[in-house]
Amino acid sequence: MNTRVQKLILVKVLCFAIFLTGNNTAGAQGAVTPFKIYEAENGTLGGGATIHSQFSIPAESSPEFEASGRSLVKLGSTGESVSWTTTEESNAIIVRVCIPDAPSGGGIDATLNLYVNGEFRQAINTTSRYSWIYGAHQTDNNPASGNAKRFFESGAAFIKGTLVAAGSTIMLKKDSANTASYYKIDLIMLENVGAPLAQPANTLSVTDFGAIANDGIDDSPAFVNCISACQTQGKGMWIPTGEFHTQGVIKAKEISIYGAGMWYTQNTRIIGGRHKWDLTDCNVQDLHIFTPETAREQVHGHDYGMTCQGTKGYTIQRVWVTSSGAAFWLSGTDGTIKDCRTFETWADGINLNNGPSVKPGYAGKRMTAQNNFIIGSGDDGIALNSQNDGGATYNMVDVKILNNTSIGAMWANGMRIAGGRNTLLKDNLITDPTSSNGIRIGKFGTRGNPCESVLVTGNLILRGCGLRPIYGYGGICVTDSATATVSYNTIIDSPGLGMDVQSCTAEFTGNMITRPTAQGILIKNNAVGSATFTNNTVNEITGDQLAFQNNAPDSYLISATGNSWQTVTSNQDHDSNFSYTDNNLNVYPNPFNGILNLKTNLNTGYLITVFNAAGNILLNKSSDNAEEILDLTRLPNGIYFLRISTNRHSYIRKILKY
Fold it and tell me: What is the largest distance, in Å, between two alpha-carbon atoms of the chain?
């Protein structure tokens, strides 16, 4: 088997492991979601359907490059299909798909047929009305203005008929009634949605103030009057099942807002002017916000899903925002956003900030974003954005960004830390940003507060680099004189650098970088600062690559101990030979069927670590023996990594269980 085929198989294994085998367990990277993701390229093709991929960085964006996993399935002719075998019961589907723009822009509508176990269930609505922009920015729908980008929309529907059982075959097929010239399918999500929630006690319903569901008429006066009554009476606001339209800025303070569930209660915005919800110390839960935005200008619908601030604390949970500007623009003190999802927004998915100026209600203290799912954001997937021009004195403090997923950020970074003190970015999953970095650590512009201290740890970054290197070119980029600790992150298949190190003061410990297209770790020209590198691993690089390179030795000082490039020749291609041996470590047999032997001539105690490609540790064992026998029969067949670490050195081997 050639090296390229082995690498492609590993990419597919990673996608399968992360997206198809079930919800993440405690401590794993990314959000635990109520839906399952099925990548199109992992499905079964029929009728001549084809897989299209773009793993390297192109000169301009493409649907393939913006797709999750950098791959999609194209249905271009009648009879072509893609199908999957379901792993759990489901009654709802989301299809992330690209269909063509209209010849002069503005999008088209079309359908795509859905089958379960060979029987037609329904036609799924698809559209390109909220995608396809052209030229240098995100404001132009005219195809004559230049290169295209922003190709995908995600359409949701309940599946008609009986519940789809686990083990069923679900198929998307282009039939003669499906009139788009092609359907480029990125993925589907299947979910088993429960019944709508009932109205909570001590709440007032917007329908009691004149709102009417599903009539397409502006319900803003009813919302405003209901909010006023809730604030006066100390009650919450209830938005029942149905679609309710609003326009203008809807303000509320110190109330709770409830919906019947993300699949049942929808607030659709009327565009042409401002339409955000502007909330102060409000709790919000269980609803969906949809904006028919077509470009990143107010006249085309650009505005926030919601802003929230305050001094008393608030929680936003189980809110789904589609196609808005920044979905959640959050500041204040003790604010939490959790279990939310944003799809195809025109700006950030979640922006945690401290306002445009120093104000108590916008402090940005003790904020938390946890277990949120973002796909296709038009700016950073999740950003800490400290830019109130207040310097260190009024910096954001104690922000936590934990166990979130960001897929396919279209315009900026998968996640960004811009300023802040004592920040924690931990156990997140970031994949396929098409513009900048997987993670960027620094500050925001000239008014940005400094990044005084951040711990970036335990994150998994897949294909974490895009086509705008001016803002960084790596799975992780550290810049802008930030002070950062970057530890135990896993970076796989970066199409640029593994780590892009610019001016900063940093500690890099225990990170694993696999198959970067450029250098593993590059300290760039003119960087100023210092860093320690301890027990980091760069593996599977080619002969013309360097695992580590310092292009600023006179201005950027380093201390390095126990890193892979200090102890193992950096140009070994482990794909071509699993049974790699040197004088310090012999691992055999490899591939193995359960029992793995290792011999070492190390004259000191060492730590044995076995971990999978997602970076999850499966075995930790201390030893001072020259020979060890490892019983790994409990592990499923697949590719793993074995690391032997001492206080001074680290050795890594790829191992294959069959």
Answer: 80
The residue-averaged pLDDT of 64-82 equals: 98
Contact 323, 130 (CB under 8 A): yes
Calculate ∠ Cα 154-159-163, nearest 5°: 135
Which stretch of 377-391, 444-458, 530-544 has the lowest confidence by average pLDDT? 530-544
Phi, psi torsion values for 316, nearest 5 degrees: -115, 125
Cis upstream peptide for 58 (omega within 30°): no
134 C-beta neighbours (distance < 10 Å), count: 21
Tens of pLDDT, residue by residue over 312-349, are 999 999 999 999 999 999 999 999 999 999 999 999 99
Q: What sign does the dihedral 294-297-300-302 (CA atoms) show?
A: positive
Q: What is the DSSP letter of 101?
A: P
The answer to whether 252 touches 218, Cβ cutoff 8 Å, is no
Q: Where are the beta strands (DSSP E) in 323-365?
A: 328-330, 335-338, 341-343, 350-353
Q: Is the pLDDT of residue 638 over 90?
A: no
What band does 21 get if pLDDT is binned at 50, 70 and 90? Answer: very low
Contact 428, 29 (CB under 8 A): yes
Question: How many residues does this entry show for the chain?
Answer: 658
Of 55-69, 72-86, 234-248, 597-611, least confident by mean pLDDT is 597-611
Q: Is the pLDDT of residue 568 over 80?
A: no
Q: Decide the pairing of beta strands 44-46 and 81-85.
A: antiparallel
* C-alpha torsion angle, residues 382, 386, 392, 394 (rounded to 10): -120
Centroid of chain to Cα 515 = 20
Q: What is the Cα–Cα distance from 480 to 444, expressed in whole angstroms?
A: 9
Phi then psi dihedrals of residue 220, to 5 deg? -55, -45
Quote the CA–CA distance of 638 and 215 in Å, as a whole number. Answer: 54
Q: Would you say the C-alpha torsion 228, 231, 234, 238 has a positive or negative sign? A: positive
At residue 641, the pLDDT reads: 83
Ranges of beta strands (E only) in 61-213 are 71-75, 81-85, 92-98, 109-116, 119-127, 133-134, 148-149, 153-158, 169-173, 183-191, 203-205
In this predicted structure, the answer to whether residue 569 has a pLDDT above a threshold of 60 is no
Helix (H) or strand (E) holding 19: helix 3-19
Local structure of residue 66 (DSSP, 8 states): H
Structure tokens at 445: 């512009």
Residue 75 and residue 174 in contact, taking contact as beta carbons nearer than 8 Å? yes
Cα 587–chain centre separation: 36
CA dihedral 111, 116, 118, 121 (to 10 degrees): -50
pLDDT at position 18 over 60? no
Six token digits for residue 432: 């396929």
Give the β-pairing of 415-418 and 382-385.
parallel
- Strands of 326-414, DSSP E: 328-330, 335-338, 341-343, 350-353, 368-370, 373-375, 382-385, 400-402, 405-407
Q: What is the DSSP letter of 143?
A: G
Check if the beta carbon of residue 148 is closer than 8 Å to that of residue 135: no
- Say how far apart CA 648 and CA 652 lie, in whole Å: 14
DSSP element (H, E) containing 230: helix 220-233
What is the Cα–Cα distance from 104 to 362, expressed in whole angstroms? 43
